[in-house]
């Protein structure tokens, strides 16, 4: 038997794990190389720790809202280091899913160490040289640190070292109003930090529609997060033993005192330090690996998935792409599949959550796609009222004159769960009429999806038919 691998996968995050798993499942000889922690960003620094801290913060918030639930007195004493230990505990609970032991048992040969690509068919890890037919690049992305003067004078936080702190920052500045910035601004504020969020663009959550983002912005401000829009961080200085962030703001220069600063202004692909040109691999202007619709790089036996490839930076997209990388690498030229981004969903885990599938209004306008829009107000939903969670909306974009869904956005409690029905509907071409005709249990949050379908039905009911019906019933009286 040849020692040559069918697939060498570099990086054991969401993309690399799934890519190697698929290879092993179809009996290919697969090596998986990881230089740091199995599970990559999602498990160790991303989705898992962030969702764990968000839960503690939400629990605190519910205690603060005791009067909304008819409870006169409720108090709590926060032990921040325990909150952070709980975060680590959740990582440890999930770790076995992504472990060397599990992947080895599934038939993947795991190597610990930094991979070095020698040529298109050779990868080195430590003193081992692996020969391979194909390579999958799944090396992820890292926090981008913008060029702010004197930033190195403070021990700034990013999503990588945030999880090491055990003392709650009293005054926390968060740079960036994307998902990381917003999720962490709300969570730390709820846990007791005084949070100032600094966003360069016109507003935080710049990718969302205005009416959707407003629900989150209003809620965050109500809870006490100070949100500064159109504000660009320029310099860090120290005055009287205090750290200050100097920003260009609409009213002039602003000085923001802080104890800790979290940088969350985007993540850049881990493509530094490799001579890609020598390997015949082109990069995109933003530093990601240039791939075609089969996820092949410009070197045809080298594929890429996840954050290193883009265009999305989500765990589920990395694993979706991973399938195409492995299958296309292992079965080309007999069979190959074009990656399908038609139905991609994502959730921002603020409270309320924002969940999206397909296009929102902003994206449809930018792409010049014609649409009709139907909205449902969550204050009308019985279950939301009984839960004191009657806040938010569902917004569905349809192809004009039809019930075909081209996008859905939900901003509400449990939006991330509710979006699932629209994901399935879009994937299998189920329109709003069929959602309306489906029995949803009462009283549940998911009934809201039927609610928006009802709004569509009433708005599009043929007026001529209704007027004939009116006459018909009149005649029968
Ligand atoms: C705070 C935060 C919260 C997030 N929350 C969510 C969320 O709720 N939902 C969601 O879908 N996404 C979320 N994301 C995004 C998600 O974590 C990423 O999109 C996902 O982890 C990307 O997976 P990947 O496999 O491309 O890369 P990674 O998970 O980064 O894995 C890449 C791996 O490659 C290894 N590596 C790099 N170079 C080499 C080398 N030369 N040799 C060997 N190994 C190497 C790295 O050590 C790393 O382990 C979040 C991200 C952050 C930072
Ligand atoms: N719930 C989720 O699915 C989830 C959660 C967290 C992260 N992620 C993924 O990780 C990616 C990275 O997240 P992110 O929030 O770091 O980045 P992002 O690119 O999504 O948002 C960064 C924000 O920072 C702003 N910004 C850029 N430079 C700035 C500066 N110098 N000063 C102030 N503001 C500045 C941008 O205008 C933007 O609003 C996301 O795009 C997402 O794909 C997903």
Structure summarized in a few sentences:
This protein is of the alpha/beta class and 477 residues long. 34% of the residues lie in helices and 24% in strands.
Question: What's the layout of helices and strands?
Answer:
Elements: E1 5-10, H1 14-25, E2 30-34, H2 40-44, H3 47-64, H4 80-94, H5 100-105, E3 108-112, E4 115-119, E5 122-125, E6 128-137, E7 141-143, E8 171-175, H6 179-191, E9 194-198, H7 210-223, E10 226-228, E11 232-239, E12 242-249, E13 252-258, E14 260-263, E15 267-269, H8 276-279, E16 302-304, H9 315-331, E17 345-348, E18 353-358, H10 361-367, E19 372-377, H11 382-386, E20 393-398, E21 405-412, H12 415-427, H13 432-436, H14 447-460, H15 463-476
Parallel strand pairs: 1-2, 1-6, 2-3, 6-16, 8-9, 8-14, 9-10
Antiparallel strand pairs: 4-5, 5-6, 7-15, 11-12, 12-13, 17-18, 18-21, 19-20, 20-21
Nicotinamide-adenine-dinucleotide (NAD) binds at residues 146, 175-181, 183, 198-201, 206, 232-233, 264-267, 313-314, 346-349.
